[in-house]
Specification:
Elements (H helix, E strand, L loop, with lengths): L5 H5 L12 H11 L3 H4 L9 E6 L5 E5 H6 L14 E3 L2 H10 L4 E5 L5 E6 L5 E5 L3 H8 L5 H18 L9 E4 L2 E5 L7 E4 L5 E4 L22 H8 L9 H14 L9 E5 L6 H12 L7 E2 L6 H7 L4 E3 L6 H12 L2 E3 L11 E3 L5 E2 L9 H4 L2 E5 L11 H28 L12 H14 L5 H20 L1 H12 L3 E4 L1 H10 L13 H11 L1 H5 L3 E8 L2 E8 H10 L1
Parallel strand pairs: 11-17, 12-13, 13-16
Antiparallel strand pairs: 1-2, 1-3, 4-5, 5-6, 7-8, 8-9, 9-10, 14-15, 18-20, 19-20
Helix pairs in contact: 8-14, 9-15, 9-16, 10-14, 14-15, 15-16, 16-17, 18-19
The structure holds zinc ion.
Zinc ion binds next to loops.
Length: 565
């Protein structure tokens, strides 16, 4: 055999085609792991299936299969002359692939540009872990020699992940994927429950890549259940206030709709004196959807809300009092699926718009101060104090709950399977909670309530709570008083309005007071406009003597005015 010239030697003889994958290897893998690479894009597909090498001494050229390298190390003995002079091309790369067993990984980014590893753990299940987290360090630690090699490998994987540009949208606990709803069971086998329209729900051993997990999440189990199980669960909640029957209906509809991942639902707000079990109601509600070891989150001005929304499907904030305008906006964006801007980024990207769409629970002794637009998306539950004689230890209560919970979930998921297939009630009644109203109405009808009852109930509550929100709003409350004194109308500049409001008690030093007349004008014509409409006030802008004015009229007076002209 003739010697290879240096020029020929540099010619790559091993093609690094990332899209080639041998059918044989895929079959072998699917048998071994239960997954088919082409379905799930295991990282295995970006490692070439074979490598070529040649002997420096005798010039022998040979092809090495990846499986031979998985079994042994990269060979250095020449298969022909048996001397230790056999060298494969891209040796450094192969050394890394083999050392890390890269074919066991799938690298990808989620919608927030955070990087993940999906890997077969050999237990016939696929795990998904953050590339930057402790778990991936643990996974790689046994495959490298020392700490600096570990850091280098992580950097290498991060680079591969970036260049692979493989993206999977990830969710916490509940996801919609191809018209099915998936619920992460958070068990060791990474199983998930799949809800199929018009069929039922069932446990899937090998779900697609859909979920990220956090340490606080507890397993979600379910069994076939009936209406009786839901009724038994509803008995554990201490509904109070004026209309217990309506509260029960609203709550049942709310609970069932929480299994639907992409509809705007409502914020749940249990309110009551201490001893009214508002924490218990919050915790019970959450454990139906998203069982966790975290009890209640304390809301402070430093709470990282976007991060909390990401890590919890139904976060519970305990004993809420004051919410800043920014927090109020974030809660509103959470419910409506609006973008949340995160300032302190920990992701790999400079600017990421975060979007979530799910509910949350805020409880307190008194309703926390919420912006009117958030108030219209809030279901408030007033709870009574439980007489001491009837108070049960929470540990005792939780025993009942644990026994009941799998069947309550099973029953609700079965209803959700029907709701997915529809037909839903027509959208003939506009509420701000459109889909929530329609789907909630469908679900509660299946539970035995009359058709339309749920819709009527949320319309009534919506109006009640937004009127309350305007009254409770610092600017709104004083404005209503000014309007009443002023013959139910206003026509003047923003600075004139500011002055008369100060006369009526507006304290410019109050943190909720508008800092400028322009801000006051924006608040009245923007934030408070819808709420004022519920008091039959029409709000608009006008012009008088070349100055911009704010015009507010009581609706009946406006109509009288029109009919007289
Ligand atoms: Zn040789």
């Amino acid at each position: 055999m003739s010697a290879i010239s240096p020029a020929e030697y540099r010619t790559p003889v091993c093609s690094m085609d990332v899209h080639q994958i041998s059918k044989a290897r895929e079959d072998e893998e699917s048998e071994k792991f239960g997954y088919r690479s082409s379905n799930f894009k295991w990282f295995g597909e970006s490692v070439p299936e074979s490598a070529k090498g040649e002997c420096f001494m005798c010039g022998h050229i040979d092809t090495l299969s990846i499986s031979s390298m998985i079994k042994d190390q990269i060979p250095i003995s020449c298969p022909q002359c048996k001397r230790k002079s056999f060298k494969i091309h891209d040796f450094k790369k192969w050394e890394k692939y083999v050392g890390l067993k890269l074919w066991e990984f799938d690298l990808f980014s989620d919608q927030f540009k955070m990087q993940y590893i999906a890997y077969n753990n050999g237990n016939n299940s696929r795990h998904i872990i953050g590339l930057k987290g402790d778990q991936s360090r643990g996974l790689l630690a046994s495959r490298v020699k020392n700490k600096s090699e570990l850091e280098n490998s992580l950097m290498h994987l991060s680079g591969l992940c970036y260049s692979a540009a493989n993206t999977h949208e990830l969710h916490t606990r509940i996801a919609r994927h191809e018209n099915h709803i998936w619920i992460d069971m958070c068990d060791d086998k990474w199983r998930a429950i799949k809800i199929t329209p018009n069929e039922d729900w069932k446990v899937e051993e090998k779900p697609p890549i859909l979920f990220r997990r956090y340490d606080h999440m507890k397993p979600f189990t379910a069994e076939q259940g009936t209406k009786a199980d839901l009724d038994a669960f509803l008995k554990l909640i201490n509904f109070g206030g004026e209309n217990v029957a309506r509260q029960k209906l609203l709550y049942a509809g709310y609970l069932a709709t929480q299994f639907l991942p992409d509809i705007q639902t409502a914020l749940l707000m249990p309110v009551g004196p201490s001893g009214s079990a508002k924490s218990t109601m919050s915790v019970l509600t959450r454990s139906v959807i998203d069982p966790t070891t975290v009890r209640e989150i304390t809301l402070t001005k430093n709470t990282d809300l976007p991060m909390t929304f990401m890590q919890h499907r139904l976060p519970v904030f305990g004993n809420c009092g004051y919410l800043t305008q920014e927090q109020s906006d974030m809660f509103c964006n959470l419910i409506t699926g609006g973008s949340i801007y995160k300032r302190k980024l920990f992701t790999d990207s400079d600017s990421v718009q975060w979007t979530f769409m799910h509910s949350t629970i805020l409880n307190g002794i008194a309703p926390p101060s919420l912006a009117p637009d958030l108030m219209t998306r809030t279901l408030k539950f007033e709870l009574d104090t439980i007489p001491t004689a009837f108070m049960r230890a929470e540990s005792d209560l939780m025993k009942d709950v644990d026994a009941l919970m799998p069947r309550v979930r099973g029953y609700l998921m079965q209803l959700v399977a029907e709701a997915l297939a529809g037909p839903l009630p027509p959208a003939d009644r506009m509420t701000r909670l459109g889909d929530f109203g329609r789907i909630g109405d469908f679900l509660t009808t299946k539970m035995g309530w009359e058709r339309g009852e749920f819709l009527n109930a949320i319309i009534d509550t919506g109006i009640e709570s937004s009127q309350e929100a305007v009254e409770a709003d610092y600017v709104g409350g004083i404005l209503l008083a000014v309007l009443e004194k002023n013959g139910d109308n206003w026509d003047g500049t923003a600075s004139e309005l500011m002055n008369i409001m100060i006369v009526n008690g507006l304290d410019p030093k109050n943190p909720n007071s508008p800092k400028t007349t322009a801000r006051l004008s924006d608040a009245v014509v923007g934030r408070l406009k819808t709420g004022l409409g519920l008091f039959k006030y029409v709000v608009g802008r006008g012009k008088s003597n070349g100055k911009r004015t704010i015009v507010i009229r009581k609706l009946e007076k406006e109509q009288e005015l029109r009919s007289s002209t």
